[in-house]
Amino acid sequence: MNGHSIPAKEQPKGLQHPHDHPKPPVPHPHPHKHQHPHPHPHPHAHFGISYSPYKADRTCKNQEEVNQDLDRISEYAFIRIYGTDCDQTKTVTNAARRHNMRVFAGVYDLTNFPGSLSALGDAVTGPDGKKDWSIFHTIAVGNELVNAGTNSAGDVVAAVRKARSVLRAQGYKGPVVTVDTFSVLLDHPELCHVSDYCAANCHAFFDATQRPEGAGAYALEQARSISARAGGKRTMITESGWPHAGDANGVAIPSAKNQDAAIASLRKSFDHRREDLVLFTTFDDLWKEDNQFTFNAEKFWGIHRDL
Question: Residue ranges under compositional bias (Basic residues) (predicted)?
Answer without folding.
Answer: 29-45
